[in-house]
Every structure is written in structure tokens, then in C-alpha cells.
Specification:
The chain is an all-alpha fold. The chain is built from 23 helices and no strands.
């Protein structure tokens, strides 16, 4: 396996003059080809433990029976002597085992940072991390093959938001907690999707690797750490060295729980940028599927019923488009067919940035004020999640 797109215009533009250049400058590294050789095998590796559990449960038993079994071992610990299948036992014993390297206090630093970003964090997740991710054509093929476009963006956004909010609270990741149970379901959903894709579709293994492979997973969760911070910096959010380290540590542990080999998960921005750089050498630029996913995300503003009146929804759409153009490279916006905002809306990101710079002068002065910012930001995020839960169609099923 070799880099395919290192000499392609989309790769060169991203890393020479776009957001990629910003990442390289921030990390101050020169990518080493040995990193590609180290990570490349992951493109054809998957979460075997998760796949075996799905084969023993959801693909073998009635749905209710399989769900009850997973729920049972998610809510309470499993023992070595448990009378159940070996695959279930291995899976839950691995998830219950807290690795020697995990530092809960450091992970909580990362969680508090996520919470204190408030609405800013949600904007970045949607308009930078998620939308920008659609420009990696091969990464998104599982979404296309599992019918994500037909299911609509409202449900998909609600699921992503629910996952992110729950796993980024303080002390959230203890075995059998609500966040832990959500990670179990997400991990098994990945395995179920992967097995169904391989069974029912004409998957291009040579170009796309395994469906939902380990390197794609690392790149995805780098979006919640490295790319998340990059976007926040564009909105004027200051990030301390401790917060940065804490955020990487938090997502390393979440990635471990999701079945990604821990030794490959980045612990700092240098490692994150390096592996991300080489991962993009095997990702083609956004294609027609990418544009369709982007349009579905924009359309979600108009389809969602959180805001009652059509003019409110149109306004929200324009504000998100202004953020897309502020955060993403221009050619990516063009490829994803995101309309350029009118001048009246293009000032919105500048207003948000100015507000953040002012508020941080107040709330980053001491620990007490910082805690207030964490509490306020967390409430903002939970309120948005509650709205999405309330307004997501109740009859939706995968």
C-alpha cells in the first residue's frame, strides 16, 4: 500500500495553503514516511471483538433478545466465570479493564474544556469537523452504503450530538455508566454496519480499505480532538497546554473503548497531525456522494422543527453557511456545493469571535470563573441536545 494522492491538487492545496498548512505550522513537524508505513496496515484492520459479538447476537438471535443481552452486560460487570459466549466475555472484559495509562483527572481536564466551549463547540463539530469530513470521499462510503441520505440528517445529528455530549462530561466514562453504555452501542453499531456492508454491497476494498477500518476511525476521532481545537482557535477560543493534553487523553480513552488499538491513538498534536497527514494521502477529494451528504446537512436546518417558523430556519441555514465559509477552505466549500453567504451573514463568525475574546477576559481570570464558564457551556450543550431529542422523529429505526 502506497500514498495515492500526495501529488493531487486537492492534497497539495490543503497542506500547502489551506487548513492543512495551518495544522503543520501549529504542530511544527515535517511528516515522516515511516508513519505511513506504521499506520497503513490499519486501513485493512477492524474491531474483530465487536464483529464477533454482533455475529453471536444481532445476526443470530431475535433483535429483542440480542439487545437484552447487550444491555445486561453494559449495565453491570461481567465476570470471568460468566456463563455466556466467549466472544461476549472477551468483549466486555476488555471494555471493563481500565488500562494502566488512563488518568481520569487528565481526562476530566479534557471534558471540562469540551463543556466550557458551549455553543462554540457545537458549531465547530457541525460546520467544521462534520462538514469538512464530507470532503474525504472514501471515508464517507459507509454512510452512503448504509443509506444515511435516505434516513435524513436530523436523526444522524441527534445521534452524534448525544454521543459527544455524554462522553465529554466529567467522570462520565466509568464502566456501566450511561456514557459507557452509549459507547458499547456505538461500537457494536459500527460492527453491524461493517458486516452488513461486506455481505450486501460491492465494496471497493482496494481503494476504501475495510468498511469502518481502524485508520478511518482514528482519523474520525482526530476530528473530535485536533480538528476540534483548530476550529475553536478560529473562533477566538484560547486553549491551555493542559486542556490540549487533556483533550487528547480523553479521546484516546474513548477510542480505546471503541475498539481502536490504543498504541496508535495520538497523545499530542504532533502525533495527530502526522498520522492525519498520511491518512489524507489515501483519501480522494469530495465527490458526488460528498456533495449530497453536505446538502443533506444544510437541508437539516430547514427540516428540523426546533424553530417553529420557516424564516427562523432559513436564518439558521444562512448562519451555518457563513460558518462553513469562515472555517473551511474555499475549494472544499465549492466541492461540497455550499452557497457563499451574503455579506450581511458573513460577519457572523467575526461577531462570535469578538464575543469569545471578550468573555474569556472575564471567565479565564481564575478557577472559580472558569468553573462558571464550564457550567454555563455544559447547560448550553445539554439544552441543544434536549431540543434535538424532542424534535427527532419518534418512529425512526435503523
Amino acid at each position: 500500500m502506497k500514498p495515492k494522492f500526495q501529488n493531487s491538487p486537492h492534497f497539495i492545496n490543503y497542506w500547502k495553503k489551506g487548513n492543512g498548512k495551518e495544522l503543520l505550522d501549529w504542530s511544527n513537524i515535517k511528516p515522516d514516511f515511516e508513519t505511513f508505513q506504521k499506520f497503513a496496515p490499519l486501513y485493512h484492520q477492524v474491531d474483530d471483538l465487536g464483529d464477533e459479538v454482533v455475529k453471536e447476537t444481532y445476526l443470530k438471535l431475535p433483535y429483542n433478545e440480542a439487545s437484552s443481552l447487550i444491555k445486561k452486560y453494559s449495565e453491570s460487570s461481567i465476570s470471568e466465570n460468566e456463563e455466556t459466549s466467549e466472544s461476549l466475555k472477551k468483549f466486555f472484559l476488555q471494555m471493563q479493564e481500565i488500562p494502566y495509562w488512563f488518568d481520569e483527572n487528565l481526562a476530566n481536564v479534557g471534558a471540562r474544556f469540551c463543556m466550557r466551549t458551549g455553543a462554540n463547540g457545537l458549531i465547530i463539530l457541525r460546520d467544521f469537523t462534520l462538514m469538512g469530513g464530507y470532503d474525504f470521499a472514501y471515508l464517507n462510503k459507509p454512510l452512503i452504503f448504509t443509506g444515511a441520505l435516505k434516513k435524513g440528517a436530523v436523526k444522524r445529528l441527534k445521534d452524534t450530538l448525544e454521543f459527544w455530549v455524554h462522553v465529554t462530561r466529567e467522570n462520565a466514562l466509568k464502566p456501566n455508566s450511561e456514557a459507557y453504555q452509549l459507547i458499547v452501542r456505538t461500537r457494536l453499531m459500527h460492527s453491524y454496519a461493517r458486516l452488513k456492508i461486506k455481505e450486501k454491497t460491492d465494496w471497493d476494498f482496494q481503494n476504501w480499505g475495510e468498511p469502518i477500518n481502524s485508520w478511518d476511525m482514528i482519523a474520525t476521532y482526530t476530528g473530535f480532538s485536533l480538528v476540534f481545537m483548530q476550529g475553536l482557535k478560529k473562533l477566538g477560543i484560547k486553549i491551555s497546554a493542559e486542556e490540549e493534553t487533556g483533550l487528547f487523553h480523553l479521546w484516546k480513552y474513548i477510542g480505546y473503548l471503541l475498539g481502536i488499538p490504543a498504541e496508535f491513538l495520538p497523545e499530542n498534536r504532533q502525533q495527530a497531525v502526522e498520522q492525519f497527514y498520511w491518512w489524507t494521502t489515501i483519501q480522494d477529494e469530495g465527490d458526488e456522494d460528498s456533495a449530497h451528504l453536505a446538502q443533506a446537512l444544510l437541508q437539516e436546518n430547514l427540516d428540523n422543527t426546533i424553530y417553529k417558523h420557516p424564516f427562523q430556519r432559513k436564518m439558521l441555514l444562512r448562519l451555518h453557511q457563513s460558518m462553513n465559509w469562515h472555517l473551511l477552505d474555499g475549494e472544499i466549500n465549492d466541492r461540497l456545493q455550499i452557497p457563499k453567504p451574503k455579506k450581511a451573514f458573513s460577519i457572523f463568525p467575526k461577531i462570535v469571535r469578538k464575543g469569545n475574546l471578550v468573555s474569556q477576559k472575564i471567565y479565564l481570570r481564575n478557577f472559580q470563573q472558569y468553573q462558571k464558564l464550564v457550567e454555563m457551556g455544559s447547560l448550553q450543550q445539554i439544552k441543544v441536545l434536549d431540543d434535538y431529542i424532542k424534535h427527532t422523529p419518534k418512529d425512526f429505526h435503523y
